[in-house]
Amino acid sequence: MRGLKGKNVLVTGGASGIGQATATRFLDEGCAVCVLDRSAEACERITAELPALTAVINADVSNLEQVRAAVDEAIEHMGSIDVVINNAGISIRHDFLDITPEEWDEVLGVNLKGVFQVAQTAARHMVAKGSGVILNTASTAGNTGYPHYADYSASKGGVIALTQAMALELAPVVRVNAISPGYVLTPMQRAEYSDAMLDAVNRKIPLGRHAKPEEIAALFAFLASDDASFATGHVYVMDGAETTGGLCSQWTHE
């Protein structure tokens, strides 16, 4: 992608799944990359698997003090931050009637409050230096109802609205977009779904499969690049046409 080589990139939730694939893609593009993740175990693993990373920072995006310290650390290591991939997220599969206040707070704390805190902290730095790109991970669950994920859907709907508001306020200095993936075969997804459940989902997707994390990472790379220099304020859906025309509940492969 044009204009990525030499950029300084911070990827949250970067030690597994979409985040790890995205960190790998930006390294391949010649970027300096710092990964932020709240799992100490995952941080240790990604340090060994991606030795080219500039730094791996153990921090929780739902904790503002940790976010500020992590952004400062990333700037210290790389000199600046040009691109933020705001990817950290969690989900808990449970019925709406069973969601506890503690679970609600945990999901919204990471998925929405965490996105806000990282974006605001990084944006202040970007505005001061005169440029930047912030890309948020939303979800098709943010504008399409999915059973058993009410708190997750609420959080991702918030990310979509936050992305649009940020883009208006931060233009023309900082570009802000979001990606709404459909089903992606990540460790988080695999842990919640049996083989039979995954097969049932695949039959609802016109392309007949889950996305690969690397495919989402490729879109992040494009949106961060100079090739997307006029793209801001939008949410880009990548779901294999699952939600097109309401096919999420209708499509089956013969």
Give the strand content: 5-15%
Structural class based on helices, strands and sheet pairing: alpha/beta
Residue stretches low in confidence (pLDDT < 50, at least 5 long) are none
**How many beta-strand segments?**
7
Cα radius of gyration in angstroms: 17 Å
Biggest sheet strand order reads: 3-2-1-4-5-6-7
Shape: globular
H/E series: EHEHEHEHEHEHHHE
Per CATH, the class reads: Alpha Beta
* Number of discrete domains: 1
By CATH, the topology is Rossmann fold
Name given to the CATH architecture: 3-Layer(aba) Sandwich
Find the CATH superfamily. Answer: NAD(P)-binding Rossmann-like Domain
Question: What kind of sheet is the major sheet?
Answer: 7 strands, parallel
- The percent range for helix content is 40-55%
Compute the average pLDDT.
Answer: 94
Distance between the termini: 38 Å
**Number of DSSP helices?**
8
Topology overview:
Blueprint: E1 8-12, H1 17-28, E2 32-37, H2 40-49, E3 55-58, H3 64-78, E4 83-86, H4 101-129, E5 132-137, H5 150-170, E6 174-181, H6 187-192, H7 195-204, H8 213-224, E7 235-238
Parallel strand pairs: 1-2, 1-4, 2-3, 4-5, 5-6, 6-7
Helix pairs in contact: 1-8, 3-4, 4-5
